[in-house]
């Protein structure tokens, strides 16, 4: 069986099973809440409170991410960059060239800043409008895959945090000083992983490229002249197939959205009972959000942090580790916890303290140099695992779809299947590097 056929099978399977990104977030919220109650004994009210608190803990981070994307888009629309994109597009004439350029150029761009995936998206859409024979869903998947290389680049948040004076690990006495980026981003391990992203990842994706049957950009463009204003409910009905798959049923589930809304409204009710009519801006926004969920009818970090679930997972994983295996343990832990904390910095805030404590115990009397090198290796392992499992969830497609999906009839589930094989290749390859290659 060819890789092209395997890719097609993955796409067909994911299209049936993967719900909309918002529904995916609702499911993970409920799973995380249930895990907190089972694993660390949190009460339903503890879960709801942690969930509410998590909304506002992410405000600063959320605005930073918005600004990174907005500034990246502003650069993409500047005259020098649009001119460069135009000149590049004029020299590329075949679908294979388009795929390779997007995969390699995209990786190089996010080495500078992960927000520069917007530049790749603009370039990819321009190429799709000029070159015939390009499968557009596959091209979006290639663009998304290329953005995964940000973790080895200059905007990788965990190594930057380790080199920030007064970071939370230093304030808590877990580290005595910063760890320079030479031990993280400039290490042999990170350079090896960067090579994997620039060579192995594009090669695996390119071998899967559709050649027999393609759906081009022009086939997916929605003609605004023929479209009529519709309600949200009417739009939802048009997306429901005649023979709905599991993903369709989840997307239109009244139960799922209602359970999440009731969890939020329960917190609001308890807040008013305990504090009287104590209304503030955050609470008002939260109430409107929950009412919106109820009124529309169909379609986390805070839970992990406030209930102690994230720390419990890290402690359990590190308790079975040895000095030789703790980088691999951190790698797997980072990948798992990412499903509930889709933020590298936020995840390190939860996993960092127990993992650094474990490293201190395991390095024993080996001295501060060995301790710092192991912390650096463990930190990068968490970063790699966290970044890789972004390929299994559709959240970060929101960095690509506003550009490549504008005016186009396409959903996340139409393209996520293409990244499953590259994910498997990357997970195994980078996992071996984490286990075998030192940071210095």
Strand content: under 5%
Largest sheet: none
Number of strands: 0
For this structure, the quaternary state is single chain
Poorly predicted sequence stretches spanning 5 or more consecutive residues: none
Query: What are the secondary-structure elements, in order, as H or E?
Result: HHHHHHHHHHHHHHHHHHHHHHH
Note the total helix count: 23
Average pLDDT reading: 83
Distance between the termini: 41 Å
- Our count of domains comes out at 2
Could you tell me the radius of gyration in angstroms? 23 Å
Helix content estimate: 55-70%
Shape: globular
SSE-based structural type: mainly alpha
Describe the structure.
By secondary structure, this protein is an all-alpha fold. It folds into 2 domains: 3-229 and 303-436, no CATH class; 254-297. The chain contains 23 helices and no strands. The chain has helices spanning 3-17, 21-39, 44-57, 59-76, 79-91, 95-112, 117-130, 136-146, 157-162, 168-171, 188-207, 217-220, 232-239, 246-251, 254-275, 281-296, 301-307, 309-319, 326-337, 344-363, 368-388, 401-404, 420-436. Helix 6 packs antiparallel against helix 7 (117-130), helix 18 packs parallel to helix 20 and helix 21 runs antiparallel to helix 23 (420-436). The longest helix has 22 residues, at 254-275. It is globular.
